[in-house]
Amino acid sequence: MAASNTRPGARTTLRDVARVAGVHPATASRALNEETRSLVNEETAQRVLRAAEEVGYRPNPIARGLKTNRSYTVGVLIPDLNNPLFPPILRGIEDRLEVAGYTSLIANTDNDPERELLDTQAMRARQVDGIIAATARRDHRLFDEVVASGLDLVLVNRWLPGVPISSATADDRKGQRLAVQHLIELGHRAIAHIAGPLDYSTGFDRHEGFLEAVRSAGLDPDPELVVVSEAFTESEGARLCARLLDRGREFTAIAAANDLLALGCLDTFAERGVQCPGEVSVVGFNDMPFAARFQPPLTTIHIPHYEIGSAAAELMLERLQGADGEPRHVRLEPALVVRDSTAPPGG
């Protein structure tokens, strides 16, 4: 390998890499691009990669974009960065995109559909190559906006039934069924449900999973024990748990559509002196960070959020690399995590 003689402090270029590796700049370019590396002999490609590391070469995305008519930027729409489940999803997205030479541009929509559309338009103005969205509602507004712009769209932690768009999610119905089946196996029969917003696929599918599990056990869902939240938040969980208690209908367990809703239940129990799980058991959904440190530690459904984010990024890269065929829907498996917030009735 040729010796490096780049000037201290000078920006290294592709030609510097090629000189150190002893190859033509075009060969160095192909070796450094993940999409074209297979066109280069493996030994040569590794020599180029070592040379790039030696001289501290960093690709110039602007110059690369001028050649390829791409910005090498992917927009990511997140509904609520205060929700602890989204940082692992973002990390999965960013780690996979970074390997392929892409940068993410993140926008927090605060669960506001108008802001979602404005952020989408702002990303279009910044010429992102595609958008990964964790914000999609079942009304298709985001899908219509992005498709009209000609951008690639991939959904993460959401999906739209009947719409030709790739998505990476957990199997939300199965996860909620696991939660309810756990409660039934403990002996619970009067099970309340705090559903998430039904205009999101997560809220809708988990609600359907609750109904399926209850009915498959030969029970009739009590409509007085089912409440629907306006948002996946702790305050909504506290408000709706108080509503369930105030209705006076007997129940021994609550299946909440996410961990924050479940945490709100624990807040209300503490305020009203209700023992959990002695009087009411609670199951959450997501296994978000610190769920094991709730009081009591929360029984919940574990979702592999980092892997979901990484899968969404992979789906986006497939679209950007010109993959044809039907959209793909990646469904990752949920798993029940039993902690101290559930016990047999009266236990």
Short description:
With 347 residues, the chain is an alpha/beta fold. The protein has helices at residues 14-21, 25-32, 42-55, 61-68, 86-99, 113-125, 141-149, 172-186, 201-216, 234-247, 259-272, 305-320; strands at residues 73-78, 103-108, 130-133, 152-156, 167-170, 191-195, 226-228, 253-256, 281-283, 300-302, 329-332, 335-337.
Spatially, the strands of the biggest sheet line up as 2-1-3-4-5-11
Estimated radius of gyration: 25 Å
Shape: elongated
Overall pLDDT: 90
Distance between the termini: 71 Å
Q: Tally the helices.
A: 12
The amount of beta strand, in percent, is 5-15%
Helix content: 40-55%
Model description:
By secondary structure, the chain is an alpha/beta fold. The protein has twelve helices and twelve strands. It has helices spanning 14-21, 25-32, 42-55, 61-68, 86-99, 113-125, 141-149, 172-186, 201-216, 234-247, 259-272, 305-320; strands at residues 73-78, 103-108, 130-133, 152-156, 167-170, 191-195, 226-228, 253-256, 281-283, 300-302, 329-332, 335-337. Strands 2-1-3-4-5-11 form a six-stranded parallel sheet, sandwiched between helices. Helix 2 crosses helix 3 (42-55) and helix 10 packs across helix 11. The chain is elongated, with a radius of gyration of 25 Å.
